[in-house]
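Long-time lurker. I teach an intro course on protein structure, and each term I like to show students one example going from raw sequence to a predicted 3D structure in token notation. This year I'd like something fresh instead of my usual example. Would anyone be willing to generate the tokens for the chain below so I can use it in lecture? Attribution to the forum is fine with me.
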Amino acid sequence: MQFVRCCRRGLGSLSTTSNQIRTGIQQNHTKVVWRQPLVCMSSETTTTPTVRPRNDLQANRLEEFGRYVSEILPKYVQQVQVSHLNELEVMIHPDGIVPIMTFLRDHQNAQFKSLVDITAIDVPARPFRFEIIYNLLSLAFNERIRVKTYTDELGAIDSVYPIFKSADWFEREIWDMFGVFFTNHPDLRRILTDYGFEGHPMRKDFPLSGFTEVRYDDETKRIVQEPVEMTQEFRKFDLSTPWQTFPNFDEREKLDSGSSEPEEKKEEK
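-- Reply from a regular --
Happy to contribute to a lecture. Here you go:
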């Protein structure tokens, strides 16, 4: 329910005396009328959330444009869909990344001249485990489009740096994090990890601890890089808890913490 609070202002001066308030009359002022604020309740109820509601007109327009792209370039476009948030997604073959991007940038009905972001996801269960995602923006039509393609560990994708200069660091980040190689890139090298880093951290099969560790060596007075060593000192584990409610009904075996002294053998009589 929508509540609209209606309050009345202009209640007069608050510097009146108690006697003047009782009589409701002020000197050289209008009559003071004390009223409670009114609450107006509307009968209209909202059954759908107000955060980015689905616009059927916009969804139909995006779906029509997606079919238009697939009809012009049927060799590369494999699937077109509109998400529940009115976002157009075009799934293409890896060989069609350059012609598709060129079409979306230069065609008068598209004009997606801004490359917002390039990202990737890793799904090891798929035959082509890496999914490359391009997010484009058209300032002329105020629309966004998402282009998706795929590859594996050994496959390479054509770089879109000749089409969008902003793809330079985006493709370097994907190469650093996922190990996806981009052909025709002018400077494809790591951008986030250190020199000599082994592996690609965003892959699902990459260990959380990594393969190497970096530390400062006091003897050589410099930073050294060496394999990870998981050292752990001897610790005394006490598995008994003070919050146990019914210790007499606990069927688990009680572990000796090691602090008790050995009992002396009783002499046999």
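Some talking points for your students: DSSP finds four helices and eleven strands in the chain. Helices lie at 18-23, 56-72, 97-106, 167-178.
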